[in-house]
Amino acid sequence: MSNISNPFGQVLVALVTPFTADGEVDWPGVEKHIDDCISAGADGIVVTGTTGETSTLTDPEKLKLVEVGKSVAAGRAKIITGGGSNETAHAIQLYKSSEKAGADGVMIVTPYYNKPTQAGILTHFRMIADATDLPVLLYDIPGRTGVPIRYETILRAAKHPNIVGVKDAKGDFAEVSRVLNQTDLLYFSGDDTNVLPHLAIGATGLIGVTANIAAAPYRTIVDAVNAGDLHTATAAHRQLEPLVRAVMTHVPGTVAAKYILHGLGRISSPRVRLPLVGPEDTEAALIEDELSHVGEIPGVDFSRFRPDRNAAAGGALPKVHGTTR
């Protein structure tokens, strides 16, 4: 395990951003959802992350999400601001403003689309880390950004005093082990299917999408691993597997998580912002079939799930929002 003090906790939720039926942020819904996640056992909430649809949130919305999260958490959980930008100057501006808004930490996703070299990625990370006093997590998700953070780049980034950890969605367990052996970085599983394997080789915790729906089993897994109880951890992992499949397999995780949360009556609308759309009938049917295999999960009553495909795919299209500046 890392020798770095962990400022974030171990069970972190990659928060979806609840919207109203016309695509505006549902602020009462945001407050309720954050409170639900914390009450279910979350140590931290990542707002404005990629799961939170950061690329279609305006900057004022991002800052208000930090403020609302901080107010709702009231010291019960840490609030980390995610996302970033593929423009370094804009990312620095956002993180500085988020720090003033009360964020407890920042998570920087690899610049996307530009496909920078490793030198460019490292410079991007270092300049943002230089601009904030908050602890910094790097987010490695090459399937979305197009570029991995290579092993050598992570080792160099680890030398920055503000860069304390990585959210890993690359799935290279050998590389994770190498980094854990050669740095003090905190490692958070960013792949819901691999939480237990990551923890088994020394990861700190998780930042999960499925945790929006069911944070309690992840609390069980983490606490069991901490206690050396592999049997309990494995049982909770297997219990979660059909739900993880429902969330992460058929449509983007944000879309599926909102569809399920709405069906459970926990958010008012399953809306996502364009160019994301709700699941088509065939996709919704696959999600619902996976849910039929989910057994009893603490804090979630799937017998109350009522799918509403019309709300996900029909009705008025959400507004197309303007510039993120």
Descriptive overview:
- The protein has helices spanning 27-39, 59-73, 88-101, 118-130, 142-145, 151-157, 173-182, 195-200, 216-226, 230-248, 253-263, 281-291, 309-313, and strands at residues 11-14, 44-47, 78-81, 105-109, 136-140, 163-168, 186-189, 205-208.
- With 325 residues, the protein is of the alpha/beta class.
- Strands 1-2-3-4-5-6-7-8 form an 8-stranded parallel beta barrel, surrounded by 5 helices.
- The longest helix is centred in the last third of the chain and has 19 residues, at 230-248.
- The protein is globular and about 50 Å long.
- The model has no long low-confidence stretch (mean pLDDT 94).
Biggest sheet: strands, sense, closure? 8 strands, parallel, barrel
Order of helices and strands: EHEHEHEHEHHEHEHEHHHHH
Low-confidence stretches: none
Specify the structural class.
alpha/beta
Strand content range: 5-15%
**Tell me, what's the shape?**
globular
Summarize the helices and strands and which ones pair or pack:
Elements: E1 11-14, H1 27-39, E2 44-47, H2 59-73, E3 78-81, H3 88-101, E4 105-109, H4 118-130, E5 136-140, H5 142-145, H6 151-157, E6 163-168, H7 173-182, E7 186-189, H8 195-200, E8 205-208, H9 216-226, H10 230-248, H11 253-263, H12 281-291, H13 309-313
Parallel strand pairs: 1-2, 1-8, 2-3, 3-4, 4-5, 5-6, 6-7, 7-8
Helix pairs in contact: 1-2, 2-3, 4-6, 9-10, 10-12
